[in-house]
Amino acid sequence: MLLAWATTQTEFSGRESMLDLGDYAYMFVGGADILRGAWSGWKEADTAIVKKYFKDVLMPAANPYGESSYGAANKGALALVALGLMAIYNDDLETLDKVVYQTRTLAHIGLRNSNDIGMLGDSLRDQGHAYGQFRSLTMLAEALWSQGIDIYSDLDNRLLAAGEYFARVNELVPTAALPFGTTDAYYTSDRTGHGWQGGGGGNVALTQIYGAYVLRKGLQAPFIAQRRLWMPVDGDSFMFLKDSDTSKATPPPALPIPSTTSITSGFSNADIGGASPAGAATYAAGKWNVAGAGWGIWGALDSCHFAYKAITGNGSIIAKVESLQNTHPSAMAGVMMRTSLDPGAPRAWMAINYKGEALQNMTKLAVYGGSNYANKVASSGPTYWVKLERIGNIITGYVSPDGTNWAATDVGRIDAPVPDTIYVGLVVTSVTNGTLNSSTFSNVQITGGDGGAPSVIPAAPAMLLASPGDGAVPLRWQASFGATSYTVKRSAFNGGPTTTIASGVTGSSYTDKSVINGTTYYYTVTATNSAGTSDNSPADSATPVRPMVNVATGGTANDSENNPANARNAFDQNSATQWFHTGVTGWLQYDLGHTEIVQRYTVTSFSDKVSRDPKNWQFQGSNNGATWTTLDTQSNQERFELKSYMVASPSSYRYYRLNITANNGDSKFTGLAEFGLFASKP
Fold this sequence. Notes:
Elements: H1 2-8, H2 17-38, H3 44-62, H4 74-89, H5 93-105, H6 127-146, H7 154-170, E1 180-181, E2 186-187, H8 203-216, H9 222-228, E3 261-262, E4 268-272, E5 280-284, E6 287-292, E7 304-312, E8 315-324, E9 332-338, E10 347-353, E11 358-363, H10 371-374, E12 377-379, E13 385-391, E14 394-400, E15 407-413, E16 421-429, E17 437-446, E18 464-466, E19 473-477, E20 485-491, E21 498-505, E22 509-512, E23 521-529, E24 532-533, E25 540-542, E26 548-550, E27 556-559, H11 564-568, E28 579-582, E29 586-597, E30 600-604, E31 614-622, E32 629-634, E33 642-646, E34 652-663, E35 669-672, E36 674-680
Antiparallel strand pairs: 1-2, 3-17, 4-7, 5-6, 6-17, 7-16, 8-13, 8-17, 9-10, 9-16, 10-11, 11-12, 13-14, 14-15, 18-19, 19-22, 20-21, 20-23, 23-24, 23-25, 26-36, 27-29, 28-35, 29-34, 30-33, 30-36, 31-32, 31-34
Helix pairs in contact: 1-3, 2-3, 2-4, 3-4, 4-5, 4-6, 6-7, 6-8, 7-8, 7-9
């Protein structure tokens, strides 16, 4: 079949052709690789045919809009994994090097389209698209590892953080969210449905992440491990299952991300496009005041005041817009990069208007989706930090609530001729030419700054996540702007007195190994620099535990209709099958064949009528199958796919059952996808 397509298809097209290619790249490229390496009927000529097919037909369709011009988040990640896998098959080192570079630098689709706690650009869109982005990046990372390239280690093991965040929220652990997004949208709240069970619950990517970090690197992934206890093993995920992995790979060279430092002097001033009267930029006490006139910066011929530095090569600028005068509702203050000081020059800007809206524009740059895509309003929320970054011929615009949680919301490409030097700085336009608008910026940093601004006590880390490891609690937090180190503190109860367990931590993660399984610990983190120490971060807690194992295997299932074949469907670790019971009450039983102390059980609803889900039940244990002890009682339960319940006083039993006393309203049937029994094992 592959050869038939390769010898007949001459075009693969469509507005979003990269989506189909990325979703199935590991199948068709993997299939080609298996045929090449394992089928005796495969010839060298067949390999040449497939390579030509990939190069001439499919690879152009994975990136139809030009260099680095990719759709947001999952769309771009799908394009990268398709290109990367085909490049590996084709021994195309030039394309593979480019894919690795783009995966590590493009902040709207790759590893940098994430924050310190593991949120991805699509995390607040919906869980399905978030998983699509995560799976593509993980699949690509795994393929690169096979080539000796380790991008798993990038950004403090960022793919582990992404996997743990995804698993945590979909295991229904209460989890706050930070504003985040990408070039499609900037999200200020989490309205996604947690408890997502599509795609086998994420079994492909989470199985790969578990192998990469837990088996290879010896790290802990508590929420991924918890989710793997019930995720089905299917025709996709089984290929990535392993018991051990001692393979090695080498991290690529450091990322070419431009650094920034504060600036207190050295800006030049330009009134562009007839802006009058002349503006000015002055610095005092940690803040820049920029006064500017002009008609605006949206149009082809912009008119504004620009306080700038000329920067050669990669560069970046950051600023927080503190205030701007109401010379016009559309008056704006922000950051700008431009190729020259002439009106209408190719340029990019990120700004805040008087109405508090975050705006962006990339005039005369090549932007995915065209100019309307670039001109959208990124956010109408209280986001007052803006950033621009140039890496090579790519300019990326960001917004942030705090100066560290940067979401790339605009990306454009400077086409030839690409200047070595561009102009970078602060921009103000009054939109009422003849009247100056006085705007104030704080926390201004730029590549090549003088570093002369006084230090300011950093804000507390905006979010902290604690995970229940085995004899350890892995912690991750969102970094604070200007912090040079962090202190981790622990308490025995919520709001109680704290003890410092680590200080001088320079990254945004730490693993507490001084814990006892079964004990709950509460954590906070503070940020420090030369000016002082922040308040505490929001707290999070975790109870380290020995990993639990689903012991409902190798035994005998039955139900109140004495239908073992039907009952087995609830214990096959496949949420696509169901125990389908005639009746609104009834029981589902499992005989382990030996005794076990079950400490937790799980109930997974089937993708059927909600009314058929169990509503009220008793979880019971027995040693003879006749006399039952009730271990847990639940009522008024509603569908949310997998639900997990702890047993308050576990004891040793051979038989366990779910005695359902009511469903959610169906008059005839009750259904359940999975019933799991979990016990601690050495």
